[in-house]
Amino acid sequence: MFYEPKNGHGLPHNPFNAIVTPRPIGWIATRGADGSDNLAPYSFFNAVAYDPPQVMFASTSAKPDRGDTKDSVANIRDTGVFAVNIVSFALRDAMNTTSGPWGKDTDEFALADLEKVGCDTINCARVAASPATLECKLTQIVQLPGAANFAVFGEVTGVHMRDYCMVDGMFDVKQFSPMARLGYRDYATVRETFSLTRPGD
């Protein structure tokens, strides 16, 4: 089939998210100007540059208590920092709990019974149990077409990796099985990998 998004797809559910898969999940921790902590997962997330290391995530909806966006973007606007926590299979239920439409005064760390620890280079909490966390300083927020679509870019200023994830000097995803977002309500996890050598390497 073929469809033009402007005319609708005619299916029971939007297939767009199911086509662009799998997508890594950025579990974004922020701290408001008032000191309150927030934690929410975003599947429009990825690394975008090596030197300096940079990441991005996109927020695509708004909450009544935040005006044109959600808690994460609103907090980053105020403080200029955020932490990206990587989601392991073991943390799937906690991640899902933090995805709800909670009020801006809700501490999702507490709601999901997650231990929080401080970051080293930014004033923000991070998920202690996460296999890796990227501490980030905001570089820019880009408003995309659509009322509530914002892409947030940050430079990575600190990297935390759990010791059990390190094997022979390499960060081994098989040690924790990272979660990925698919379409609809579906997720996947990485349990096996394979290698390819690029031409010229």
Structure report:
A hairpin with a 2-residue loop joins strand 11 and strand 12. It is built from four helices and 14 strands. 11% of the residues lie in helices and 35% in strands. The protein has 201 residues and is mainly beta.
Distance between the termini: 39 Å
Low-confidence stretches: none
General shape = globular
Tell me the fraction of residues in β-strands, as a range: 35-45%
Mind summarizing the main beta sheet? 7 strands, antiparallel
Task: Kindly list the characteristics that best describe this protein.
single chain; 201 residues; mainly beta; Pnp Oxidase, Chain A; three-stranded antiparallel sheet; 4 helices
Write the SSE topology:
Layout: H1 16-19, E1 23-24, E2 26-31, E3 37-42, E4 45-49, E5 54-59, H2 71-79, E6 81-86, H3 92-97, H4 108-111, E7 116-118, E8 125-127, E9 132-143, E10 150-161, E11 166-167, E12 170-171, E13 179-181, E14 187-189
Antiparallel strand pairs: 1-13, 2-3, 2-6, 4-5, 5-10, 6-9, 7-8, 9-10, 11-12, 13-14
Summarize the structure in short.
The protein has one domain: Pnp Oxidase, Chain A. It is built from four helices and 14 strands.
